[in-house]
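User: Before I run my own analysis I want an independent prediction to cross-check against. Here's the chain; please return only the structure tokens and, at the end, one sentence I can use as a sanity check.
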Amino acid sequence: MTEQTAPRDWRPLAAEFKPRNRLFIDGGWRDALSGEQFDCLSPIDGRLLTQVAAGDAADIEAAVRAARSSFERGDWSRAAPRHRKQVLLRFAELVREHRDELALTETLDMGKPISDSLSVDVPSSANCLQWYGEAVDKVYDEVAPTGSDSLALITREPQGVVGAIVPWNFPMIMATWKIGPVLAAGNSLILKPSEKSPLSALRLAELAIEAGIPPGVFNVVPGFGHTAGKALALHPDVDGIAFTGSTATGKLIMGYAAQSNLKRVSLECGGKSPNIVMADYQDIERAARACAFAIFFNQGEMCSAGSRLIVHESVKDALLEQVSRVARELQPGDPLDPATRLGAIVDGPQMQSVLGYIEAGQQDGARLALGGARVRQQSGGYYVEPTIFDAVRPEMRIAREEIFGPVLSTLTYRTEEEALRIANDSSYGLAAAVWTQDLKAAHRVSRALRAGVVYVNCYDADDITVPFGGYKQSGMGRDKSLHAFDKYTELKTTWIDLS
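Assistant: Structure tokens:
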């Protein structure tokens, strides 16, 4: 058994948990100017973890002033790449050194199993910071191929003040996907975490200062989307805004940018990802396990979740039997128990939304093949068992709308053309998958799928070196990889006349 999943009793640590709960601006803690706070409840048992300062427009104004001052001061924006590299590498190491604390924070705040927080969220976050730290001094500028009487330099410069609004499902990973390239490029950052899971972002800000990031370069303002988030997207002195969350909110962010200073916008929004299993794929057990984890991992609270299982009618029954078998092994449990594989839904409203979709699926005529109920009610938390629908039609709500919960819709097809038509008949285009042993079919289908990420004979394969983002209403711009620098830098051409 690995160190990350070694059994231990997390309950005493949870009982003593005392998170940071104030705004972090210009290198220090402060209360919201309004004095307002909001309750931060644990979805595990509904208990109050803390009351968090509720930032609003006035606090965003203070954070923007601090970020702009730090950027103009230049102790980070004009620092040598080698220095930024050293600081970001130290930041990554501090995340690793505080692994247990940060993992417990994610689990208590968001409800995911502690085993996932330890093995996925913390190491992935540290790896992201390390990777962008190592990339700082390996990204070269260009010299254009002009004539001998001129010299044209193409250089990347930091964008300036960047606002980042991140979601609640992977609080720390989604934050570091922004923090890493934003800071590596020399920008100053204002991070607005979700009010549903703000705690790890506040701890990261403190660790950033300890690593050597100057005051004002990394600010965190927790608060609500309609107050702090809106103010950040509208602010005329914010040069760029990066958002991960729902498509509906992403549209609002674009509107706010247009209303203010036409700041650059990057969006990673919703998904309703198709997972196509073709008739020729022989290892049904392997495909079934991957299909189950594609939708049930992280309680289904993933924008890239494989929520539409599109399977050839000749293998549907065999596949669905195996998917159901895996799902039965993934019953919700106490997220603080290292043996638990499925945790809590983030809060009561989200749980009710998921249950509402389950009811809608039944009303629309889909067959409830497994699950469909709230469980562990005696805990005081919010748990929904793995749920599988069969006989789903493409026009049903459960096949078209993002549920963001452990609910799988199964659709059948007869021809490859029909499978592609069903898969692409969506306003989303974030991820997709195809399972086949025919190499030509794998290339043909993956090219035809309108999605930013296509998995072949796997699902949710991941590495920081590859870009992540979507087509259509799943957003624009890419997180991860060197391509993320495109969102947070400006290209400047300097033309020198040598004639």
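Sanity check: The first strand starts at residue 23 and ends at 25.
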